[in-house]
């Protein structure tokens, strides 16, 4: 008999695929507008802006050390799913700009659209036992080892990222970026159930 609480392999595959595609769409919007965001993706975006390197390769490389932490904290299945999600996002973010373009996209609506796309992507990944790696995993380990609240660790990291962003982007762009990050977090806060799904 099938356990109704467990996803099938097909369900996991489509959930991770959906998450990777929507997250890539969010990154296309973000970088088209020159906005920034938080967490590991935000760090990769800032490095991309500062160096001219592509987001995809930078994001993939930044996440490599976190797979060890993910394996230790969340197990092999979570780590494998996360690796697949990160690799898919990295690859799609490199080719998707050639598939879509924007004749007109205001920063305000673009920030909200980024937040909705990214929030739904993360929800799909969480619900299928994956994530986009990075700082969230480290935050959980610091919470386990040192008693630091994971949410505060992530908030502190994001605050540092946005502080650096002021050196690379004008204040209005950073403000629209903060709106996008707020929408992402609202989508997750309102819709995510930690008693049912893994969140990192």
From TrEMBL:
PANTHER family linked: UPF0750 MEMBRANE PROTEIN YITT (PTHR33545:SF5), UPF0750 MEMBRANE PROTEIN YITT-RELATED (PTHR33545)
Regions that span the bilayer: 15-35, 41-70, 82-102, 108-126, 146-168, 174-191
One GO term describing the cellular component: plasma membrane
Keyword Transit peptide set for record: no
Membrane topology, as annotated: Multi-pass membrane protein
This protein's UniProt keywords: Cell membrane, Membrane, Transmembrane, Transmembrane helix
InterPro entries: UPF0750_membrane, YitT
Organism expressing this protein natively: Aliigemmobacter aestuarii
Location of this chain's protein in the cell: Cell membrane
Top-level division of the source organism's lineage: Bacteria
UniProt name for this protein: YitT family protein
Coiled coil residues, start to end: none
